[in-house]
Write a structure and sequence with these properties.
By secondary structure, this protein is α+β, with helices and mostly antiparallel strands. It is built from 8 helices and 8 strands, in the order H-H-H-E-E-H-H-E-E-E-H-H-E-E-E-H. The chain has helices at 16-31, 38-45, 49-61, 76-83, 87-104, 147-154, 164-172, 214-236, and strands at residues 65-68, 71-74, 108-114, 117-124, 140-142, 175-178, 186-195, 198-207. The longest helix has 23 residues, at 214-236. The protein is elongated.
Length: 245
């Protein structure tokens, strides 16, 4: 009896398995801070090196992955696609996040909800002893950790057993946390709401030492309100945002 090849897809699903593996491989490379070798990728994927190599060659052909002397990195086409993620939100948020960073003198960023995760969409760095860039576009973390996710959850109806930080954020309109996603880093966030009870994003600032005061907090709230207003204006004209009905 002939044993099927290791990468043989299940009967009836000739292309789904290969696509799934390719997408998972792309994600592993994209989330790494350093180039990854074929051996490292094979180990992380739990697949034979020959299978991973064939997937890499296909991704390279589409410029989604590039090979360097140190290993594989994300390709130029993937970076271009990333810049087109949620174009309406990026178009609305980018200039306002830049203004916020200039206003408060702290690194500012814009985070969107993706299921049960918070994903950074826009980040504007400010060189300062009070803040440093740690949230880069594409970074993600659980929605229940860090002020961006807590701010988004606070816009929703109260749930039994929710974190006290969510209740506090609901009462004051913003969330603040420290040492939850990145050690030594504090963040303050306010939700961007597409409709009552439906937060799709959060406006955030980061700090390391001195806790921002009322002027900085008000700046975050102002920016979140402004982006919320522009987003609702776009949606009212028929614009579509994935996940928002």
């Amino acid at each position: 009896m002939t044993r099927p090849a290791e990468d043989s897809p299940p009967p009836g699903r000739p292309s789904v398995q290969t696509l799934d593996r390719g997408l998972r491989l792309l994600e592993v490379i994209a989330l790494s801070d350093v180039p990854l070798t074929l051996a490292e990728l094979s180990q992380q994927m739990g697949l034979h090196r020959s299978i991973v190599y064939r997937l890499l060659r296909t991704l390279q052909d589409h410029h989604l992955v590039a090979h360097t002397t140190h290993g594989y990195v994300i390709g130029t086409r993937a970076q271009s696609l990333g810049r087109r993620t949620l174009p309406m939100l990026q178009r609305i948020a980018k200039p306002e996040i830049a203004k916020l960073a200039a206003r408060v003198g702290l690194t500012s960023f814009f985070v969107v909800r993706d299921g049960e995760e918070a994903v950074t969409l826009v980040s504007v760095e400010v060189e300062s002893t009070r803040s440093r860039t740690v949230y880069s576009p594409g970074d993600r973390h659980p929605l229940t950790l860090g002020s961006p996710g807590i701010a988004m959850l606070s816009a929703e109806p109260q749930l039994l057993g929710e974190r006290p930080e969510i209740s506090r954020a609901r009462a004051c309109g913003y969330a603040t946390t420290r040492n939850e996603v990145v050690r030594g880093l504090g963040t303050i966030s306010a939700p961007v709401v597409s409709a009552p009870g439906q937060a799709v994003a959060a406006v955030s600032i980061a700090f390391t030492v001195e806790h921002p005061g009322p002027p900085q907090i008000e700046a975050v709230l102002d920016t979140a309100r402004l982006i919320t207003g522009r987003l609702r204006g776009e949606l009212s004209t028929g614009a579509v945002l994935p996940g928002v009905e």
